[in-house]
Amino acid sequence: MRFVLWTAVLLGILVGVMPASAQEGGRIRSISILGTQRIEVETVKSYMTVAEGDLYDTDRVNRSLKALFNTGLFQDVAIRREGDQLLVRVVENPIINRIAYEGNNRIKEEQLNTEVQLRPRTVYTRSKVQADVKRILELYRRSGRFAATVEPKIIQLEQNRVDLVYEISEGQPTYVRRIAFVGNKRYDQDKLREVLQTKEERWYRFLTTDDTYDPDRVTYDRELLRRYYLKQGFADFRVSSAIAELTPSREGFFITYTIDEGERYKFGSSVINAELRDLKPEDLQPLLISETGGWYNADQVEDIVQRLTDAVGTKGYAFVDVKPQVQRNRETHTIDITYEIKEGPRVFVERIDISGNVRTLDQVIRREFRLVEGDAFNSAKLRRSRQRLKDLNFFEKAEVTNIPSDTAPDRTIIKVDVQEKSTGELMFGVGWASSAGPIIEASLRERNLLGRGQDLRLGAGLGTKRSSLDLSFTEPYFMDREVAAGFDAFVIDRKLQKESSYDASSIGGDLRAGYRLSESLRQDVIYTLKQDTVKGISSTSPYVLEQIGSKVSSVIGQSLMYDRRDSRLDPTEGYFIKLGTDGAGLGGDIRYLRGTLTGGQYFTLTDKVILGVSSSVGYIYGLDQRVRITDRFFVGGDNLRGFANGGVSPRDKNTGDALGGIWQAVGSAQVKFPLGLPEEFGVSGQAFTDIGAVGETDTADTAAVQQSSSVRVSPGVGISWKSPMGPVSVDLGYPLVKEKFDKKEFFRFNFGTKF
Question: C-alpha 209: how far from its chain's center?
Fold first, then answer.
């Protein structure tokens, strides 16, 4: 009896200390999977943490349940035990057959598809759908529609498939009603609003979304404010806060920027401290373009750092670090800058990773980089590569960054993330110009043909004074070298009855190639073969009648251009100079030598007031023959306002026909200024003074020719408008200094549009 009692006690103790699996008892003889349709049974078992033959363990079964849910493959999972068998019943998530959108008028379906993560033929899950709903709402908020709602709906199909439909209510756009500044003393509210990309709601901003609220744009505007003040000398400037308040009606925002301008500083001393062997600071001193006593400009400091980095790099220093050490003198309000030039860390480029390009070939992106795998890393070259990539104009976004490599501390990886945009253009245009009359134009162009970066264009124009048809093709990297090569084919018909009483036509083509000698210096060569025909003569002038007929020209030319402008389209600073020479006579009927020299410089007088000075001279010399009228120089119209096209030219005394000269010289000084209208209008004024002269004509007998090489002067004013339908310009010029036989034109109007 005592033995039985002690045995029972011992068994009780053992049961208390045994693991739960032993307490629950029994092994799992089999696992049955129920409810699967597409997913294999073994696949389900592979996600479980318990297997056949294991002791039954409640904890491991619960972990298996969570693991199956976490796969995202199942809508419901249930596990229960029947004796030594484990039953797993699953309900599979359906497969998405199609994704559709309803109610999206403002944002295209293609843009929505790039935003959402779910795709057809993927597994439908509620969590992923909700995540995509948030992404769509964020996309609408970035476009200023905070009242937008998105309701996901599913349509059940056979074989456990569904159509996923996002029902979108876009709501009304949420405009920026008011932008205010607190703490501004130097500049008024209107001036600071011009700095921002975000604008207040106005009726004339119907073609832009800058007046809708976008939190990302507000963040960018804070940076624009900081850059503006730093450029004007306010080195201590900061934006304390940028608060956007939604109106009670939820129809608009009030944005308030609280700023601290700080003191305004001027440049003090600027010196170079070079710690590199054999590098003399005095050799780099001319690169310090900041002037002592001038207002401090952070952009200018960055430009100097770039210049120093490039200059030191060309001297053979692969690893260089240029840092401006700024010393503020708060009593004199000056900033002394010491440019420290040190040897940078020895880092090499391990590889360049490119992502986001679908059409554009990797090679097209890589060839724009100033760095390749194995090169010494150079931040200046990386910035230049980033700018070259953006200049391709193939991408909506082009982000270039570098990160440390995991393989070695002296290696870096350059990451390139691009987002492509449409590069095909189908354009139609209508317009009117004083020189050409009414014009209708059409063109078809692809700037990134087959993703290879090639440019193909077919264009046609029809006008009362000029008609044309042209085809052009450009390969930017001919034979994998940095040489842009291409060809043009053209047919041009011009009516010059008003100027010289004849019509002219040209048919031909050219081969061209261009390459950069440096970042600012470019060389181009071109060979042209064309046939020029003078026809439809309505004049009795012997100087025009002798030109009738067709002549073939075989011309070889070149141009050398040095360009330091800040922008080619709308320059505000810098200069350029271009020398062109060409000669005809390698075959054909025409033989001559011609040279042209063109240059210009731009100055920023005050904010948005730009002075531009330009000039051009040209001379043509016939080789054992007289220069044909189609190759001579005519002055007037666009190159000398106040005078008609060809208005300054040698003329037949009897008929008044313009005959053209063998040389010309024109120049212009123009001040461009705002008219006080909102910047979005794109309207600006200009005051100009044009000067010009033309040389004698090239005819057998000049007895009956009126000609004078005296200088003509024409001051005037004008208005330019960057309209949504194209550029419009109106110029009023008065020929102050002229000859009696010149043809005047007080009013000049040009209008063009592309849509």
Answer: 18
